[in-house]
TrEMBL record:
It comes from Alkalisalibacterium limincola. GO terms for biological process: photoreactive repair; response to light stimulus. Keywords: Chromophore, FAD, Flavoprotein. InterPro entries: Crypto/Photolyase_FAD-like_sf, Crypto/Photolyase_N_sf, Cryptochr/Photolyase_FAD-bd, Cryptochrome/DNA_photolyase_1, DNA_photolyase_1_CS_C, DNA_photolyase_N, Rossmann-like_a/b/a_fold. This is Deoxyribodipyrimidine photo-lyase. Its cofactor is FAD; (6R)-5,10-methylene-5,6,7,8-tetrahydrofolate. Residues 2-131 form the Photolyase/cryptochrome alpha/beta domain. It holds the Pfam family FAD_binding_7. Binds 1 FAD per subunit.
């Protein structure tokens, strides 16, 4: 039987894996290979939290392969060199992989495909990550969309229903040409992806990286929050969202399996709008990839050029405020709760992500890129497309963005969405004894703060009202100059 390499990247699953399926249907014995080459990600090599997740996800994938009689080959080299060399050594006739859509990955994959074909190998890539690929959706004029609603209306009409695919119970073992040190858990652990200190310990109390963890979370979501998603998704004190984002990023579950499972779940008619609301959120993920593909410079630059001349605060002069934001000690309870949740769990509730992003870009008036970089390093679901789109949306600089004059008030947001104060008290235990009336803005209740939360700052790092007015004034100067 001929061999085909199945190049594993962010598709760490066996079920619904188009590259694996293609290899088997072509009659090849698949050899699974992961090439560790973070330098090929350009300026966006995985951050610390992503590396920690990747290490565990690779181990989970290896364990799944072993259950099926196979194992994962692990190499460290330039991808084209590693794949060409391995193919020659094992006599492979083809290399299959599932596509990545970041600018650096696209450039790298083109180079790999050319190199492999020059070597006489069949080289094919597949869609293993998206419901609709970026080039499939275009306006009537043939261009990309910059507004979500018409994009999703068009994309929804293009959605195929890929059948769920289950791999065979047994997969071929590795050929003898693969040495023992090149595969298995030791080869993965040798990559050194985990942190030197166990600062990530809190991540794994909330998440289980790997295909099994993704399926378990999806089942829990369907049985629990999915039927009331629109009502619960904005409440950070409860499990009202799926928390599948890191599993989607690492390809531990296919998005179409999620959609299919939701549609097959048999929700009552009255709950269907709730489920559709969640599927629409998956649409935002698709929109983010659409934008990054068509506007690759937006990972670092404003999509809306108007903001290239915006009066942002000087980062050096406000370094202390930026550090306070990063460390969750701004003195604004909901902001600090969110940043501490991020640090301790590698994840943050989406409503709170918008609040902390608004605080950074509007109240502190620091460039959104500072926040995007911090999230990139600390989120286990750090995805370049989603991260870029989310930050540009909140900053008002991107496609379909929130108007710049929409400034989240962290006090009223907290009172509205953390009505019992459970979320703030969990992540800011210094405030646990404050009564609700003082919890959201302790600086307005000085006697209570001194008595029940003496370690909490007397004032936040910035005056919310004054900073809002300065942000609006800066916005008005920007619009007046155009």
């Amino acid at each position: 039987m001929s061999h085909a390499l199945v190049w594993i990247r962010r598709d760490l699953r066996l079920a619904d894996n188009p590259a694996l399926r293609a290899a088997l249907e072509a009659g090849h014995a698949p050899i699974f290979v992961y090439v560790h080459a973070p330098q090929e990600e350009g300026d966006w090599s995985p951050g610390a939290a992503s590396r920690a997740w990747l290490g565990r996800s690779l181990l989970a994938f290896e364990s799944r392969l072993v259950e099926h009689g196979a194992s994962l080959v692990v190499l460290e080299a330039a991808s084209d060199d590693a794949l060409a060399s391995l193919a020659a050594r094992v006599g492979a006739v083809a290399v299959y992989w599932n596509r990545c859509y970041e600018p650096a990955s696209i450039a790298r994959d083109k180079q790999v495909k050319m190199r492999l074909r020059d070597e006489g190998l069949e080289a094919r890539s597949f869609n293993g990550a998206l419901l609709v690929e970026p080039w499939q959706v275009h306006t009537g004029e043939g261009g990309p969309y910059r507004v979500f609603t018409p994009f999703w209306r068009k994309a929804s009409g293009l959605l195929a229903d890929p059948a769920r695919w289950t791999p065979p119970a047994r997969l071929p073992a590795l050929p003898d040409a693969i040495s023992g040190h090149e595969h298995g858990p030791r080869a993965i652990e040798a990559l050194g992806l985990g942190p030197r200190l166990d600062w990530d310990a809190g991540f794994w109390k909330r998440f289980e990286p790997g295909e099994a963890g993704a399926v378990e979370l999806l089942d829990a979501f369907i049985e629990g929050a999915a039927g009331s998603y629109l009502e619960q998704r904005n409440l950070p004190d409860r499990a009202g969202t799926s928390r599948l984002s890191p599993h989607l990023h690492f390809g531990e579950i296919a998005p179409w399996r999620i959609v299919d499972a939701l549609r097959r779940a048999g929700f009552p008619k009255g709950a269907q709008p709730q489920v559709d609301g969640y599927i629409r959120e998956l649409g935002w993920r698709e929109f983010s990839h659409h934008l990054l593909f068509h506007y690759p410079d937006t990972a670092t630059g404003n999509l809306n050029p108007r903001f290239n001349d915006f009066d942002w605060s000087d980062a050096k002069e406000h370094a202390a405020a930026l550090e306070a934001w990063q460390q969750g000690r701004t003195g604004v309870p909901i902001v600090d709760a969110g940043m501490r949740e991020l640090w301790q769990t590698g994840w943050m509730h989406n409503r709170v992500r918008m609040i902390v992003a608004s605080f950074l870009t509007k109240n502190l008036r620091l460039r959104w890129q500072h926040g995007a970089r911090w999230f990139w390093d600390t989120l286990v679901d750090a995805d370049l497309a989603n991260n870029t789109q989310g930050w540009q949306w909140t900053a008002g600089t991107g496609a379909d963005a929130a108007p710049y004059f929409r400034i989240f008030n962290p006090v009223t947001q907290a009172a509205r969405f953390d009505t019992r104060g459970t979320y703030i008290r969990r992540w800011c235990p210094e405030l646990a004894d404050l009564p609700d009336k003082a919890l959201y803005a302790p600086w307005e209740h000085e006697d209570e703060r001194k008595l029940r939360a003496p370690s909490w700052p007397a004032q936040p790092v910035v005056d919310l009202k004054a900073s809002r007015e300065k942000a609006l004034a800066a916005y008005q100067r920007t619009t007046a100059s155009r």
